[in-house]
Amino acid sequence: xxxxxxxxxxxxxxxxxxxxxxxxxxxxxxxxxxxxxxxxxxxxxxxxxxxxxxxxxxxxxxxxxxxxxxxxxxxxxxxxxxxxxxxxxxxxxxxxxxxxxxxxxxxxxxxxxxxxxxxxxxxxxxxxxxxxxxxxxxxxxxxxxxxxxxxxxxxxxxxxxxxxxxxxxxxxxxxxxxxxxxxxxxxxxxxxxxxxxxxxxxxxxxxxxxxxxxxxxxxxxxxxxxxxxxxxxxxxxxxxxxxxxxxxxxxxxxxxxxxxxxxxxxxxxxxxxxxxxxxxxxxxxxxxxxxxxxxxxxxxxxxxxxxxxxxxxxxxxxxxxxxxxxxxxxxxxxxxxxxxxxxxxxxxxxxxxxxxxxxxxxxxxxxxxxxxxxxxxxxxxxxxxxxxxxxxxxxxxxxxxxxxxxxxxxxxxxxxxxxxxxxxxxxxxxxxxxxxxxxxxxxxxxxxxxxxxxxxxxxxxxxxxxxxxxxxxxxxxxxxxxxxxxxxxxxxxxxxxxxxxxxxxxxxxxxxxxxxxxxxxxxxxxxxxxxxxxxxxxxxxxxxxxxxxxxxxxxxxxxxxxxxxxxxxxxxxxxxxxxxxxxxxxxxxxxxxxxxxxxxxxxxxxxxxxxxxxxxxxxxxxxxxxxxxxxxxxxxxxxxxxxxxxxxxxxxxxxxxxxxxxxxx
Amino acid sequence: xxxxxxxxxxxxxxxxxxxxxxxxxxxxxxxxxxxxxxxxxxxxxxxxxxxxxxxxxxxxxxxxxxxxxxxxxxxxxxxxxxxxxxxxxxxxxxxxxxxxxxxxxxxxxxxxxxxxxxxxxxxxxxxxxxxxxxxxxxxxxxxxxxxxxxxxxxxxxxxxxxxxxxxxxxxxxxxxxxxxxxxxxxxxxxxxxxxxxxxxxxxxxxxxxxxxxxxxxxxxxxxxxxxxxxxxxxxxxxxxxxxxxxxxxxxxxxxxxxxxxxxxxxxxxxxxxxxxxxxxxxxxxxxxxxxxxxxxxxxxxxxxxx
Lengths: 665, 306
Known about the structure:
The complex is a heterodimer.
Chain A: E1 4-9, H1 21-28, E2 34-40, H2 46-58, E3 63-68, H3 71-84, E4 92-96, H4 108-127, E5 135-138, E6 142-146, H5 150-161, E7 165-169, E8 184-185, E9 190-191, H6 192-205, E10 209-212, E11 215-223, E12 226-233, H7 248-252, E13 258-259, E14 268-269, E15 272-273, E16 285-286, H8 292-296, H9 301-305, E17 318-324, E18 326-329, E19 333-335, E20 361-363, H10 364-371, E21 392-399, H11 415-429, E22 434-439, H12 449-458, E23 463-466, E24 469-475, E25 478-485, E26 490-496, E27 498-503, E28 505-507, H13 511-518, E29 545-547, H14 557-575, E30 579-582, E31 587-589, H15 599-603, E32 609-615, E33 621-628, H16 638-642, E34 648-650, H17 655-664
Parallel strand pairs in A: 1-2, 1-3, 3-4, 6-7, 6-18, 7-10, 18-29, 20-27, 21-22, 21-27, 22-23
Antiparallel strand pairs in A: 5-30, 8-9, 11-12, 12-17, 13-14, 15-16, 19-28, 24-25, 25-26, 31-34, 32-33
Helix pairs in contact in A: 1-4, 2-3, 4-17, 5-6, 5-14, 10-11, 11-12
Chain B: H1 9-26, E1 32-38, E2 45-50, E3 86-90, H2 92-103, E4 112-116, H3 169-178, H4 182-194, H5 201-205, H6 230-244, H7 253-257, H8 264-279
Parallel strand pairs in B: 1-3, 3-4
Antiparallel strand pairs in B: 1-2
Helix pairs in contact in B: 3-8, 6-8
């Protein structure tokens, strides 16, 4: 006979405002099997939990129902409390009388009746709960970090410094990401390369970090603690072990006029190249699309001049399988490009800005390359069209961002600060020039950020105009900027030499495809979703996968680095244990009835269903049935819904329990 | 207007089956063959399992060979000693069921020796076995057949059936029912289901009802009322139709064996039509690892999400 204890929570006033909790406690106390029922203001608080523990012991309770908020909120809390009182935690269920009842109803009488029914259902369900032993799975103490920008580098270094092996995978030929492209960084104006490149070298030299550049994630299998990741190492055409990085091949390559993506296509590079001189690894890669040898079979000059014989035209893509226990996703961002409407994107183009056809209208990252000492102009700010120094420069903020009519409603967060920085860099380099900024409002929360912005106006003479630009067009060698100054209420027209657009921060192309490989969720813009916006900001809902940096949402460098270290800390927490405990809410097969059609195996998203042979004592095969690997099972219940003879059931959600709940209504 | 159907090839087909059975049993290719033999009444036929080459002469194929023998390889498989390959005589519709069973891991192609039958049609269950095959006496399923010549078999007699254009009897009936109002349609099915006596003959004869324990026989929890009353009858027939959706090959054995003449294959055809419209899926000769209801593609119809 069950001795069920029911604990009704007021949730402050959240529940008791619309549900007569005392009446609920009274009425469910009369249900068969209920030995004890009570209500309390905050069941989740320390006194609330003590009340529950005390009742379990004093009343000799066999099962517990806590009627409160969603199980997603506090199921773990109460199961822990139940366990502390000596009961198996899975003999505790939650009845959600907040989200499912008090929050969505106004009539107290009706809401109270409904609350009684919800609790009654859970009472019937908990009667059929089984004692479930916790499942333990081993942990592979190696981590995968996807993306070699500042986020990936920081996470990799932190995890590796804690003594765990890290596999760092980067799509481009060098690590460094966008931060390596920047000139100076706000709010201190220290040189990006100067603070970035030492970290890149640390990664390359770290004994615990294995670096795969020019590589992509092909396949991710497994689960927390036990992932199997297949990495495609693209053919570099240069043997990394033999190459000394002398650079002779790059000097001799006859193809020289390929726009360098790293320099936002302003600088040129040969067909065999490193993206920038400080690249890590300093091993060139052959751009097979533009290389004469690959296009026509002739040339082969780089191979002839290579002393160590590292150039290898026959190299092929290699697939490498790495077992890891945790994954940090740090794939970063890309800037919205006004020139073309990205395929499948919800963002509309900017026809009023000439669709990017005006050569001296550039984006913020291109300005960074112009201002960078290692950039294509050696740090001189020159117009892409004719190489002249712009004397009037206009910065326009919120291009794409905060523009619902263009398809993006979020704020890109970094543009206010980097535009302020740009006006300063411009002022430092073009003393007689004038910078104008069109802005909606300046968003400068952050340590020393507002001071920085004010400095750009008060000391560096940038003119901030509150209002947006309606049109840009070329007139002679000038760009006419037509906008409005809403502070004064007048139309403004500026003849600028150069225009810099603070275009929206977006996830990298292919972010959705990677999310599908990883099995993590993403929002409508393809930013990856964290498990909880406030309390679990670096964890994915998929266990064992963590987020760092701008792939989760627009972020500046300090935030990115903090998040990367936070993700690394989560990985280290996971690796602190040798075995991982996980919820035993997994599917089980009733082998006697299983007929081996393997419909469950076909629908299982986790690959948890295996084929198991049933043999008699003589070893003769009787039949082949399905077997659910409890370490892999995600507890989603799809198999249960699919099985035609209902021979696979999810513990805690068996058909018997569901039917009992329905019958209780 | 009654049109006669040419079944003259059946004699040659029977001859070829006998010769092939004789050969594969003698040389040990198979240990047994499931086929048809003459039964006691004039012109009738019954399933037979032979394991000796001497019995090959018993095999026949006539318009009375209605049974889907696939069922003998699943539910009745314990009757056949599993010592090697088993030969089976299959019409096109039966072969579709076998393909489905292979897709559901119930049979392996390498364990079977398929003797395909070029089939111009078989007799309806409502006529005497010795009746001549005409457009009136033909089984309704044969009026919609697109599988007169089985594909991918180990042996098919070199004969081609003549298939005159037929009035598609199920299609016509589905169209009639679809034109009704939901209330009228419900009244029609309510009446049909009320006839059910829960004998489960439809379940026993269906090659796809291979579960060791039927969901409808379970009592913990009791999913379906087992008594032949309206609620239980309706539940049973809906479960049966839903479980066959995307699997049923249309052999219509359920309808043939129903003692109460419930038009069971009509439900199956309607489900097949839905599957064709929603997922462009039709049961065929090829073995599909995943049926349309066990898989997801981005092209799937999403209109049910409101």
